[in-house]
Amino acid sequence: xxxxxxxxxxxxxxxxxxxxxxxxxTQGYLEKAAEVDAKLADLRRALLxxxxxxxxxxxxxxxxxxxxxSGQADHVGAVSASAASKSDHSNASSIGHASTxxxxxxxxNEGKCIFDDHLFSLTDGAKAELAVEMxxxxxxxxxxxxxxxxxxxxxxxxxxxxxxxxxxIVDIDRKDVAxxxxxxxxxxxxxxxxxxxxxxxxxxxxAWPSADEVNCECRAKKQADASTTDGFHLExxxxxxxxxxxAWVFMLRLLGRxxxxxxxxxxxxxxxxxxxxxxxSPMGDTYPLVxxxxxxxxxxxRETVAPEVKGSRCLEWxxxxxxxxxxxxxxxxxxxxxxxxxxxDYIYWQGHGMGVTGNVVHSDILNLPQVLGPHLKMDVIFATxxxxxLAEPFPAAQALYEATAPGGLVVFTAPxxxxxxxxxxxxxxxxxxxxKYVLVKAGFCVPNSGFAGGGDFMFDVGRDAGLQIQDFSLxxxxxxxxxxxxxxxxxxxxIHALAFKPPHASCSDPTAGWAxxxxxxxxx
Length: 524
Fold this sequence. Notes:
Largest sheet: 9 strands, mixed
Helix content: 25-40%
Strand content: 5-15%
CATH class of the largest domain: Alpha Beta
Number of helices: 17
Strand order of the largest sheet: 9-10-8-7-11-12-15-13-14
Number of strands: 15
Shape: globular
CATH superfamily of the largest domain: Vaccinia Virus protein VP39
Distance between the termini: 125 Å
Structural class: alpha/beta
C-alpha cells in the first residue's frame, strides 16, 4: 500500500512539473506571438504610409537573428540585393570600400565602407534609410549631375585643356564659336590645345584682356567600368590634398542641388535672417545660445568689456517687446547698475516721439545726444550688431561720441561676414581696419588690445550653411575666438572693438589713434 501511495505522489509531482512546464512554454509562446503581432502591425502601418525607411528597419530587425545564425554578412540587411549593389557603387555616403593597402586596417575591417563604417559608424537602420533616399528619382538625378553633368572651364586660349571627355571652344559669353566642332579629347590622349585649329576654325588669338577672347570647356564623357556604371571616380583636383577634400566638394554640390543647403531652409539665394535660426527652431528655448555670434559676444563682454567699465550708466538697444526690462549685455557687466534701453522700433514703425521715460530712451542714433541732453551722458553704450544697419556710419559714430560721458566707452561689434538681414535695413560689413577708422575719425581712442574676432573661415562656411552652436563642440567654438587687432582672423564672422572717449588712460596707447592708422597706411 505504501508503495502504491508513493507511486501516486510521484506521479502527481511529475504531472505538476509537466503541467507547469507546459504552462510556462505556453506563456513564452504567447509573449513571443504578441511581440511578432506588434512588429507586424508596425510593418503594416509603415507599408500603408509608404514609410520606406521604417519598412526597411523593421524587416531588417526581424531578419537579423536568422541572418546571424546562418553566418550571413551583416551589411545593409534590410536593403534588397539590387539596392545594396547600387549602394556599393553610387551611394554618396559610401565613397568606397576600405582596403588594407589604403588604410592599413586589420582584416576584421575588410569589406567595411570607409564613410559608413569607419567614419560615421552608421547603424543598419541608418544605412537602410540612406539607401532608400538614394533610390529616389530626384536624388538619382542630382547624383548623376554632380558626377558627370555640365561643362567645366579647362583652359584659356593659347593654353592646353586637360579633359577625358568632349571639349568645345566658346566666346567670352560662353557661346559656341561659329563653325567650331566638338573635339573628343580621349582620342587625343586627354590633351587639347585651346586654339581655333583644334576645333576646325581659323582665328587670330585676341590679346588678353579683350571682348574677343575665347576659352575652352570640358564635358565628361566616360565609359562604364568594372566598378561604376558611368565611369566616374572621385579624384583630387586642383590643389586638393586628399580625397576627403574632394568628397566634401562633392557633397556640397550634391546637397546644394537637392536644396538641402543651407540646412535650416534649403534656400540658397534668399532668407538670410531665417537661416540663422531655422535649424535650431525645433529646440525652442532648450539651449541658452544657438547662433555663433552670441557666444563670442558674451565672451567678449565678460572677458574684455567688464573689466574696463567704471561708470554705472549703460545703454543698449533693447527688446521692443519688453522695453526697459531686457538687457542682454548690460546684465553681464556688474558695474552697469543703471541700465538704459534704447528703443528705435517704435520711432521707425509707429512714429513714436523721441524722449526719455524712466530708463527707456526713444531715439535714433543721430538724435541721441539731443535726446539724452547734457546731464544724461552714458558711461557705456553697447553698439552691438548695430553699425551694419546704419546708412550713415560716420555721423552715427560722432553722435555716439557726443552721447558718451568723458572717460566712458562704446562697445562696437559688427559683422565682417553675414548674410543680408533687414532689421529694418542692412547696409555695411566691417573689417578691423574699417571699424578702427570709423571710431578714430569720430574722436575715440581705439587700442589694438581692445579688438577681438569671433569665428574663422570654418565657422564662416558653417554660418552660411545654416549651422548652429549645437553642431560643434564648445571647445571648437572657444578656439574660434581671437583677441587683439593683429590676431583677428581674416575670415572672422564678427569684429569687436572698444572705443574710449578722452580723457582715458587707453588714449596713451600708441596704437589707439591716428598714429597707428598712419603706420598701417589706412588713409592712403
